[in-house]
Every structure is written in structure tokens, then in C-alpha cells.
Write a structure and sequence with these properties.
- By secondary structure, this protein is α+β, with helices and mostly antiparallel strands.
- Helices cover about 45% and strands about 15% of the residues.
- It folds into 2 domains: about 90 residues, Phosphorylase Kinase, domain 1 (2-Layer Sandwich); about 190 residues, Aminoglycoside phosphotransferase (APH), C-terminal lobe (Aminoglycoside 3'-phosphotransferase, Chain: A, domain 2, Alpha-Beta Complex), CATH 3.90.1200.10.
- β6 and β7 form a beta hairpin.
- The protein binds adenosine-5'-diphosphate (ADP).
- Adenosine-5'-diphosphate (ADP) binds next to β3 and β5.
């Protein structure tokens, strides 16, 4: 039996079903994992595979999808199971035929995301740690948002960056920013919202009815502005999306500046994952922010 056969049999065992006959096709578009459509006689599953040590990453993805689904605002795939088999870790979920994120999908997602963000959560952080890309993301419970952003988001990425060879000037500016973070939160106290956490254009699409679907989350309870900031980082979300979001849940005027502070986290993470020009992009974002102090 091949690896895949063993994984399919593990899925069958976990879900207490029989899978005798299936077809597997490879799916592109992901950044981190190998992805496949698994077509059985009864249903179609979407499965992602990685090395066995990353089963915790799939468990956290499963929990994020389940929690987002539980709040019933935005469509996300239903999780079937996750586990380890034959030298791999895997996650299996409902396969959704995805089309491009257009038509009425952006406007609907704007409304639905605002509804999701409107539901207050009890604290900043989450019940488990997860990953952003494949980088560890710490989610220790915290009641003060600036402290959370300082210690569990920016400081962690700066430490990873130092270990990944970031120059002294980036490290110095990063530290200066951490020391002055309070400036960006003067008069602004966000409530904790359940976030998608990795909402770039590649993680949003439309189903066959044209309704929005989001997937591949890095969820936690945090400031909703971080989700909106990320939609602006790499593009893919149109004016209808933002108009619908703001009509439902207007943004604080200070978002314009904090947007850069929030996206700095993702750019530092991109430096840590991919290196290259992300270092100079992170540094110019820091300069822009330090100019506000
Ligand atoms: P990665 O974790 O490697 O970034 P993604 O979760 O983004 O992978 O999935 C890779 C691609 O597979 C996506 O870009 C999307 O097109 C498609 N996809 C994701 N989830 C599903 C699903 N439940 N059903 C069908 N296709 C999916």
C-alpha cells in the first residue's frame, strides 16, 4: 500500500466509514502543505499533508475552522478529522468547489466578517498556540491588547528575525518600536474578537453559489483591525468589501496608522519564512511608524 492508501484508511478508521474506492488529484495554490482532492464514491474531501511533527499545526487549523464555523457568520469548510499516518500528518475537511472571489462575494464577506468581529470574546489570545504560515504563533491569555501585540506578536517575530540574520538596524528600530507601542493605542481599547488571522486574498474564495468562503485560518482572539489590515497588505479585496464591512462595523480613525503596525507582523513573518526583500520592507514600515512617535 502507498502512503496515501494508508492515510485514506486512517481517515476511514477515524470517521468510521468504509473507503474502498477513491481517486486522488493534486491541488495547487497553497503555501505550506501538499493538498489533494480525495473523491470517494460517497463524498469529496480536501486533504493537506505535511511532515508528522506538524500534526499540532493541523490540530490548530481544525480548531480554528471549527470555532469560526460555530459562530456561523462566514462559510468555512467542515473539518472531518486530522491525524498522523504513514510518516505524514494530515487534515481532512469538506471539499468545496471554489471559484474566484468576485460578484457579490466580497460585499457579503464584508458584512459577515463584521458580524463575526462584533461578537465579543473573553480575552486576547486563544486556548492553544498555533502557526502563522509554519511559524509558531503564541496565544497566551492576556487582558491588555497592546501588551499582547508587543510580547506575543512583534517581539516574537523580532527574536526569530535576529536568529535568521536580520541586520542590527532592523533590530534596533524594532526595539524602539516595542518600547513606544503605547503611543499607537492612545484612546483606543479594542474588544477581543475571533479573528481569521491570515486573511490574505489567497485564503478567500466563492463557493458554487457565489457565496464567500474563507479557509486556512490562524485564529485567535484579537483586535479586529488586524484582519482588515491584512486584507490590505497583498490586495484582492475590493471597495465593496470595505464599504460593507464599515457600514456594519465602522473603523476607528486610528486604524490608518495601526494598519502598518499590524501588517509589520506579517512582513516580519515573511522575512522569517522567505528572507529576501522583506527585511527592507519591514524596516521602512518601522521608520514610518517611528515617525509617528
Ligand atoms: P496551505 O495551508 O498550504 O496554504 P490552503 O489551505 O491555502 O493550503 O489550501 C490550498 C488551496 O486549496 C487553496 O488556495 C484553495 O484553492 C484550495 N482549498 C482550500 N481549502 C479547500 C477546500 N476545503 N475545498 C477545496 N479546495 C480548497
Amino acid at each position: 500500500m502507498s502512503s496515501i492508501d494508508n492515510i485514506v484508511q486512517d481517515i476511514a478508521l477515524t470517521t468510521e466509514t468504509k473507503i474502498d474506492d477513491y481517486q486522488l488529484s493534486s491541488i495547487g495554490g497553497g503555501c505550506i502543505n501538499a493538498a489533494y482532492k480525495l473523491q470517494t464514491t460517497d463524498s469529496a474531501l480536501f486533504i493537506k499533508l505535511n511532515q508528522p511533527s506538524l500534526v499540532g499545526m493541523f490540530e490548530a487549523e481544525a480548531r480554528g475552522l471549527q470555532e469560526l464555523r460555530g459562530l456561523d457568520c462566514v462559510r468555512v469548510p467542515e473539518v472531518i478529522c486530522f491525524g498522523q499516518a504513514d510518516g505524514h500528518s494530515y487534515i481532512a475537511m469538506e471539499f468545496i468547489t471554489l471559484g474566484s472571489f468576485r460578484g457579490h462575494a466580497p460585499q457579503l464577506l464584508g458584512q459577515q466578517l463584521a458580524q463575526l468581529h462584533h461578537q465579543p470574546q473573553a480575552y486576547f489570545g486563544w486556548h492553544i498556540d498555533n502557526t502563522i504560515g509554519s511559524t509558531p504563533q503564541h496565544n497566551d491569555r492576556e487582558h491588555d491588547w497592546p501588551t499582547f501585540w508587543q510580547q506575543q506578536r512583534l517581539a516574537k517575530q523580532l527574536t526569530f528575525a535576529a536568529n535568521n540574520g536580520a541586520g542590527r538596524s532592523l533590530q534596533k528600530k524594532g526595539q524602539q518600536l516595542l518600547d513606544n507601542l503605547a503611543v499607537f493605542f492612545d484612546g483606543y481599547t479594542p474588544i477581543p474578537s475571533l479573528l481569521h488571522g491570515d486573511l490574505w486574498g489567497g485564503n478567500a474564495a466563492a463557493d458554487e453559489q457565489g457565496n464567500p468562503v474563507v479557509f486556512d485560518p490562524a485564529s485567535y482572539y484579537g483586535d479586529r483591525e488586524t484582519d482588515i489590515a491584512m486584507t490590505e497588505l497583498f490586495g484582492g479585496f475590493n471597495t465593496e468589501f470595505y464599504a460593507a464591512y464599515k457600514a456594519e462595523y465602522p473603523l476607528d480613525p486610528g486604524y490608518k496608522v495601526r494598519k502598518t503596525l499590524y501588517n509589520l507582523y506579517h512582513i516580519l513573518n515573511h522575512f522569517n519564512l522567505f528572507g529576501g526583500g522583506y527585511q527592507s520592507q519591514a524596516e521602512s514600515m518601522m521608520e514610518q511608524l517611528l515617525a509617528e512617535i
